[in-house]
Specification:
2 copies of one chain form a homodimer. Chain A is 37% helix and 21% strand. By secondary structure, chain A is α+β, with helices and mostly antiparallel strands. In chain A, strands 7-6-5-9-10 form a 5-stranded antiparallel sheet. A 4-stranded antiparallel sheet of chain A has the order 1-2-4-3, covered by helices on one side. In chain A, a hairpin with a 6-residue loop joins β3 and β4. At the A-B interface, α4, α6 and α10 of A face α4, α6 and α10 of B.
């Protein structure tokens, strides 16, 4: 009944007898509950989302979070017996060949109340990865290419450290059909996946508007997922692409202050994505012009 | 000809034989050039603002920076002889009784390329002050009260560490005419100074829109000044209030990335200011309603 998720691009994986998440056929995702404060914190966050503060989160924002079905004892994948798991919506269950990018948002991943040891560890990672420079880091991604060649799935550790220029290239490949091995990915699905009222850019901006105002939560070390299915997107599928937020083990109270750390990183990501979108529009206009000339 | 500025709320002061800035009667502000990289960096920034990259900075944004008149040898206030000074516009020269707030923006004041020693020093200050929590810290302020009582000018070191609630109270006092010693400042000039097309909120949002897009500069340890003159504001003065950016010793290149650190902090400040503005509008509506009832 349970199996290892096929399209996990970041986080702990249930491979080689290690502890990791599993999925079932009904579209649910079972995430092992971390045994320390992190596990308690993540359950508390999901409960606060789906119960008492419900009315405080606008409906258009609620859809950015996975549906929460409670916790359940599930056989752990490391053979240690039944363990409590978070039961969540399997976010890519509806996508046949999902292209996915997992981006950890923020110029820092540590929170003010954390221990010195934890802060030192996070700060080191933040400085070694692109977190401090870009305001986010890529935790992993896969891009569907074709039935024959499958997915382009670059090394996780390498993508977390990429420079601004390299991140731009990866984002171009993320919305391309060809050119993964070259410096000229075709960006052929950029306008449909990124643009439009239901595209990724529009969703990221909706999320941003909420972050400019909400002072309930601070999301440390939390990721934004960007997902789409090329075939579905090209055939007018609805939604054409999805933006989701995941990983809430380090969510803290906002105490009347906006999450300026997350918001700054989100704005940085939006600028990157919007540049790729504009680049692709210009590129396709140029192609149209040159085709047009050819016809005359 | 030169004198110590009357209305300096933060930064080094030319008092007790120390080195600090001076002003003259023609509206110029002379800031001693720091002898190390910081001095060179600040001159380079002002030169880049006013010369070669000129066309890249939109006109509506240029007005947020002090006018730069070059550098000049001026007698240092610590008696060490003539020293190079930056010659800048004296920003409050046109204000008779200026209320001023100096706010250092950003969730961190250190830049990725800095030395370990510098980063450790800044990080400590950022964690001890409100920088990490609020995304900014108050470096100093003065609020004009009346000819008799002069200015309310709380201790600099204390205001830098204030909590979110305390910052809200200081911001209320900043736009009040009475109530500095109580928990009920009257916020009587809030709507005129903060609101409207030329008010502080509108200017901060204009600056924010630029920061969402510009990838030229990263402004570490830079301050936003908010200034107004109560009498001028109340008598329909133009401008009713001014927002300026100052202190560019640690400005670095953006390298194709937006300044997510500054932008996050600026958004946090905007949320605080807009909350005070809304609070004052609601407050004045309630007063009107209760006066109205009294008339009936």
């Amino acid at each position: 009944m349970f199996k290892v998720p096929e399209h996990q691009v970041a986080g702990h994986q249930a491979l080689k007898g290690r502890l990791g998440p599993v999925v079932d056929d009904s579209g649910r995702f079972y995430k092992p509950l971390q045994s320390d404060e992190r596990g308690k914190n993540e359950v508390a966050f999901y409960k606060s989302l789906s119960s008492k503060t419900e009315s405080l989160i606008p409906d258009n924002i609620r859809r950015f979070f996975p549906v929460f079905y409670g916790t359940e004892l599930v056989e752990a994948t490391d053979g240690s017996g039944p363990k409590p798991h978070l039961v969540l919506q399997n976010l890519n269950a509806g996508l046949k060949f999902p292209s996915i990018m997992d981006i950890k948002i923020g110029t820092r991943t540590w929170y003010p109340q954390a221990s010195e040891m934890y802060i030192t560890k996070c700060l080191k990672k933040d400085r070694e990865s692109s977190t401090v420079k870009l305001g986010f880091r890529l935790c992993g991604l896969q891009v569907y290419n074709s039935k024959e060649s499958g997915y382009w799935k670059p090394d996780r550790k390498a993508v977390a450290k990429l420079s601004a220029e390299d991140v731009k290239m990866v984002l171009r490949k993320f919305v391309s059909d060809e050119g993964f091995d070259s410096d000229h990915p075709d960006c052929s699905v950029a306008s449909i996946v990124l643009g439009g009222p239901n595209g990724i850019l529009s969703q990221l901006r909706e999320l941003k508007a909420w972050f400019e105002d909400q002072t309930m939560y601070h999301f440390y070390s939390c990721s934004v997922l960007m997902m789409y299915d090329k075939e579905k997107a090209l055939s007018g599928g609805d939604p054409v692409a999805e933006v989701k937020m995941i990983d809430f083990a380090h969510v803290g109270k906002g105490n009347g202050v906006i999450d300026h750390n997350f918001l700054g990183g989100l704005c940085s990501l939006i600028k990157f994505v919007s540049d790729i979108h504009e680049y692709s529009l210009k590129d396709s206009q140029e192609k149209q012009i040159s085709y047009g000339n050819g016809d005359i």
